[in-house]
Specification:
The complex is a heterodimer.
Chain A lengths: L4 H14 L2 H38 L15 H11 L10 H20 L15 H22 L3 H32 L4 H6 L6 H4 L1 H18 L11 H4 L9 H26 L12 H9 L2 H22 L5 H28 L5
Chain B lengths: L1 H13 L4 E3 L5 E5 L3 H11 L4 E9 L5 E8 L6 E8 L6 E3 L8 H12 L2 E3 L39 E7 L5 E7 L6 E5 L11 E7 L2 E8 L7 H6 L3 H8 L7 H16 L5 H29 L3 H22 L8 E2 L2 E2 L7 H24 L2 H7 L7 H7 L3 H6 L6 H4 L20 H23 L19 E10 L2 E10 L6 E5 L2 H6 L1 H4 L5 H11 L3 H5 L1
Parallel strand pairs in B: 2-5, 6-7
Antiparallel strand pairs in B: 1-2, 3-4, 4-5, 8-9, 10-11, 11-12, 13-14, 15-16, 16-17
Classes of the chains: A mainly alpha, B alpha+beta.
Chain lengths: 358, 542
């Protein structure tokens, strides 16, 4: 498996040889920041294109076909359209908070995005409490959504924001519990370390029953966490027109839109990282020849393949299932997922203590 | 007609001045002084619990009044009564909205169009026109110049007026606020994805729970009944397609039937067959769209497209024969516009064999879905009594256990001769309203399958004089539209133009019962209720 750490170290030594150490680190930070934002935008564009194609397939349609081969340039055109649109300010809105809200959402999303290890040596934020940091960073987005709903001076927005506040804070618990289950299995909270421990089998296989339960809970809760159908109440278009971003236009709306899609990718890639081995190829202990073949495929391909597989799974659910009602959402979380998650955590502890895992 | 004679005696016992007039279908004319008492007798003792239609009328010299079409749902007996107040300036009738809940909106409509004050009505606002409209347009003495094009925004009243009569014969106007100061009121509509058109609900919320709903109609009111009064009979046909555009065939069928009844014209069997098949195709089309829209409102976008995929096939068949997809313009007085397309029979048969297995797909994806069931079962219950009282016919009434299918109650065209089941379920919740429609698609296909091979030879258009005049009198005929009883009431003075045409809207009773159904449910349930009630706004507003 190719280690990108070699490349980054080489760049660092080259830079350090022509300038002072601190300047080199500063320069690297700037480059990484730019690369991160570029990757963020590229992922957003791919996700939006994928969404349109996948949903079209489920709905017996073709999706975009006109602009570029198979309509591939369509999303880029839409981005430019969005950029040229006027940002309308609402009368009697809280101007400062109204303009701030989309940036809080996007900052939370970018920060969480930076935690994800894409390949060996390609981690941006990677330290010993990485999982905790990821959870904290992704939670900040709720503040942006609540601010958006509050400051737009619209009743529809406010209801949408209150719904999403109740929903996201509740489902944070289940996401946390299911990740914690895996942390119990690995005894580390560092993402790169979690991936390395899966070299001899992904956690979904190693942790068998409790890991599978945790995986399912994570998918449900993660889907709710990013406000995607069947949990898309905060923006339920047939009820609240567009929920918390009803009053936003132009790129401010675009930021919400992009953040929503990348958040879906983030949730999926975290699922891929902690349950399906991240960039780690599929290894079956004992079959060395097979493992060698799998190793020949670069890590980032493994990572993206797994992440997009889960994205596809969640899109499938979104476009097929009807929407839940607010009380049903909260019932599902507090009466089913949280108790199951807690029991499952206990089960994992037993499995680990008695070494029942592979 | 023993029943009628009996009723006649009972009405005469209350007020000997009540007379039976024989012109057309015939009706009892009851003096306004004893009308309330008669109405109470009809409702409580004679068991006429279903107000089919309430028509405001301007009889000129005889004053302003209303025609009430009543039906006894247990015996199936019908009766038509009317009353009028001679005082044109201050016409006042006793309200019957406490006897038949459906009268609430209809009396508001009559007030709006004729200026009749209904004593005892709690909320006598205009229903369709703007609050600042001058005059009452369907009165014969209405001056068109009163209301020039108004470029100002409408300010709608926040309080509801009601009139009470004092012992000395004058009126007291009282105003009641619609909503309290501290209530959290949001507007759902007029521009809202889930109202399926320009309908506006003012919803008072407590958290997510709905406390009260006030429906505002009239955003797409085109004055079709007024237009009909200045059109010749063949010209009136064009309007019906624009009422309920998902029941274009059936609406026009009802109007043609009513005019043919007045002319005493029997249409040939071929025409009856074609009309019946077309009505059922239209019903399948409408019910498929219903399923699609319900699924879309609830967020299941896949089912939405399945419905549209299959509906397209129906529209293709209709298009070949009628040339239209939404606006069919097919029935004419004494026949149909054009003979069926040579491929019609084959394509209809192909469609039926295609559609039967496809229905399973809907049940697999949507009906059986755990979220859909959780959302629909038990929400938005409408009791049988309320359904009858409101006159909520169609799938809504049948889901509440009321066998209200006009095809069975008063068979017309070929419906008396074909074998089909009237789907009646009992729970009255959203899920039953959905299932009624799904099962009716199957029944419609059964009806078509029985008829399609046996369409008799014959003419598709009877010989009709180019100038159609109806004799004096009034007629009412009804068909089972896609979403309930669609009735047409025509009063003629022997002219080329109708004196008054009233369309019994299928959607108005459905909207009037929203407030009853949707109290203390969540916003999301209101969307499901609106979706399953299946109203079409142009049909409500006319």
């Amino acid at each position: 498996m190719f280690d990108f750490g070699i490349v980054t170290n080489w760049i660092h030594t080259q830079l350090a040889s022509v300038m002072s150490e601190s300047l080199a680190i500063f320069l690297e930070c700037v480059i990484i920041g730019v690369c991160l934002l570029l990757l963020y935008v590229v992922i957003a564009i791919i996700m939006i294109y994928m969404e349109r194609k996948v949903c079209a397939a489920f709905q017996c349609r073709l999706g975009p076909t006109r602009v570029g081969p198979w309509g591939s340039i369509q999303v880029i055109c839409d981005v430019f359209k969005m950029l040229t649109k006027e940002i309308i300010t609402i009368r009697h809105s809280d101007r400062f908070l109204y303009n701030l809200a989309p940036y809080i959402v996007i900052i939370a999303s970018v920060t969480a995005f930076a935690c994800i290890p894409v390949s060996r040596g390609l981690e941006i934020l990677d330290f010993n409490v990485g999982v905790l940091f990821f959870m904290a960073a992704s939670s900040i987005g709720i503040i942006g959504i609540l601010l958006a709903g509050w400051s737009s001076n619209s009743k529809f927005s406010l209801i949408g924001a209150m719904r999403s506040g109740a929903q996201m804070i509740s489902y944070e618990l289940s996401v946390g519990l299911s990740i914690l289950t895996i942390v119990v299995l690995t005894d580390t909270m560092q993402f790169s370390e979690i991936v390395m421990r899966q070299a001899d089998g992904w956690f979904i296989f190693k942790g068998h029953i409790p890991a599978v339960i945790a995986f399912i809970i994570y998918l449900i809760a993660g889907n709710a966490e990013v406000n995607r159908g069947p949990f898309d109440l905060p923006e339920a278009e047939s009820e609240l027109t567009a929920g918390y971003h009803t009053e936003y236009s132009g790129m401010h709306f675009g930021l919400f839109y992009v953040a929503e899609f990348v958040n879906l990718f983030i949730i999926s890639s975290v699922a891929a990282t902690i349950f399906l081995g991240g960039w780690m190829p599929l290894h079956i202990p004992g079959l060395d020849g097979f493992n060698a073949v799998m190793d020949a495929i670069p890590g980032f391909i493994w990572f993206f393949a797994k992440a997009f597989f889960i994205v596809w799974l969640l899109m499938w659910i979104k476009w097929t299932f009807p929407r839940l009602r607010i009380d049903q959402i909260l019932t599902l979380e507090w009466k089913y997922l949280v108790p199951i998650g807690l029991v499952n955590l206990l089960l994992m502890v037993i499995v680990v203590v008695f070494k029942l895992h592979f | 007609m023993d029943n009628k004679i009996d009723i006649k005696a009972r009405i005469a016992a209350i007020d000997p001045a009540a007379v039976w007039s024989d012109a057309g279908d015939g009706m009892f004319r009851i003096p306004v002084s004893s009308f309330r008492e008669t109405a109470e007798m009809l409702r409580k003792e004679a068991g006429f619990d279903f107000l089919r239609s309430l028509t405001g009328m301007d009889w000129g010299e005889e004053g302003l009044g209303c025609v009430y079409h009543l039906e006894n749902t247990s015996t199936g007996g019908t009766i038509t009564v009317s009353t009028a107040d001679k005082d044109r300036e201050n016409a006042a009738l006793p309200s019957v909205q406490d006897l038949w809940k459906g009268a609430n909106f209809n009396e508001r409509e009559a007030y709006d169009f004729f200026g009749i004050k209904f004593i005892g009505h709690p909320d006598l606002r205009r229903l369709f026109l703007r609050d600042d409209w001058k005059g009452h347009p369907l009165r014969k003495d209405y001056d068109m110049a009163l209301n020039p094009l108004n470029m100002k925004n409408e300010v709608s009243d926040d309080d509801a007026p009601s009139y009470e009569m004092t012992p000395d014969g004058s009126y007291i106007l009282k105003r009641h606020p619609l909503f309290e100061e501290e209530e959290y009121v949001i507007n759902i509509g007029p521009q809202h994805p889930a109202t399926h058109g320009v309908l506006r609900f003012q919803v008072s919320l407590e958290g997510e729970t709905i406390k009260k709903i006030d429906a505002h109609c009239g955003y797409i009111h085109r004055g079709i009944e007024k237009l009909c009064e200045s059109s010749t009979y063949p010209q009136t046909l064009g309007f019906t397609d624009r009422l309920d555009y998902l029941g274009a065939m059936q609406n026009r069928h009802a109007l043609c039937m009513c005019i043919e009844k007045a002319m005493g014209l029997e249409v040939s069997e071929r025409i009856q067959y074609i009309r019946t098949i077309m009505d059922e195709l239209q019903r399948i089309d409408s019910h498929l769209l219903f399923t699609s829209c319900l699924a879309q409102d609830m967020g299941a976008l896949e089912v939405f497209f399945l419905g549209f995929r299959d509906r397209e096939k129906v529209l293709d068949i209709l298009e070949e024969t009628t040339g239209g997809r939404l606006i069919q313009t097919y029935n004419t007085i004494g026949g149909v516009q054009a003979d069926i397309h040579p491929d019609f029979v084959r394509k209809v048969k192909e469609f039926i064999s295609y559609m039967r297995p496809k229905l399973k797909e809907y049940h697999e994806i949507f009906t059986g879905n755990v979220i859909a069931r959780e959302r629909l079962i038990g929400t938005g219950k409408l009791s049988r009594e309320d359904a009858i009282s409101f006159g909520a016919t169609g799938g809504t009434g049948r889901a509440s256990g009321w066998a209200c299918d006009v095809r069975k109650r008063h068979p017309y065209a070929m419906y008396g001769k074909v074998d089909f089941e009237e789907i009646v379920l009992g729970n009255g919740d959203c899920f039953d309203r959905y299932m009624v429609r799904m099962k009716e698609i199957e029944q419609s296909m059964n009806i078509i399958a029985q008829l399609i091979d046996n369409i008799p030879e014959g003419e598709y258009q009877m010989k009709v004089k180019p100038l159609i005049k109806l004799p004096e009198g009034s007629w009412y005929s009804a068909v089972e539209g896609s979403r309930g009883e669609f009735g047409v009431f025509i009063e003629s003075r022997g002219d080329r133009y109708p004196y008054r045409v009233k369309f019994r809207s299928t959607g108005l009773p459905l909207v009037s019962c929203v407030d009853t159904i949707a109290r203390n449910v969540k916003i999301a349930d209101l969307i499901a209720i609106g979706g399953t009630l299946d109203y079409v706004i142009p049909d409500i507003d006319r």
